Amino acid sequence: MELYSGYINKLIEELAALPGIGSKSAQRLAFHLINMPQDRVERLAAAIVDAKANVRYCKECYTLTDREVCPVCASQNRNHKLIMVVENTRDLAAYEKTGRYEGVYHVLHGAISPMLGIGPGDIKLKELMARLHEEVEEVIIATNSSLEGETTAMYISKMIKPVGIRVTRIASGVPVGGDLEYIDEVTLLRALEGRVEL
Length: 198
Ligand code: ZN
What we know:
Layout: H1 6-16, H2 23-35, H3 38-54, E1 56-57, E2 64-65, H4 71-74, E3 79-86, H5 89-98, E4 103-107, H6 125-131, E5 138-141, H7 147-160, E6 166-169, H8 185-193, E7 196-197
Parallel strand pairs: 3-4, 3-5, 5-6
Antiparallel strand pairs: 1-2, 6-7
Helix pairs in contact: 1-2, 5-8
Bound molecules: zinc ion (ZN).
């Protein structure tokens, strides 16, 4: 016997497939959506479709943007000789919020994880290598202090060293396994200022 309408079941199924949403939350959200005014549901649906249609990777740093080149890469006021490597756009946003970092970024969109079957070819590493020309003075590795983040940092360091560019790692004052986006600005700045040579 079908407890709910097939339409509701479909909605629950789609919501439950999102990260961090279990079947209970999916049910709760589905019923919430059904009870929302029609115009709000349409705004939500349009926001999802529009974001998907318009957001892409910056062609220099690979962060998510709705322009060809993101505002950070396009800025003349940033130091383009300093590249900070982060795992995702949320980490980039965390550093941008401090308002104190003057370089540019490179967004990997993930970290190496043999356990999850994510190898070096699955994140934006060759795109990082392609950006390293003579003018680049330093690459700051700001991946998370999780096992995956550390593995990725080691891999990048070994990859860049032969090129002769300075490679540094943000200080490990950052809590182990802590996602950069949840760490306060003071801790982020301290981690950046205390970065060590790799
Ligand atoms: Zn960019």
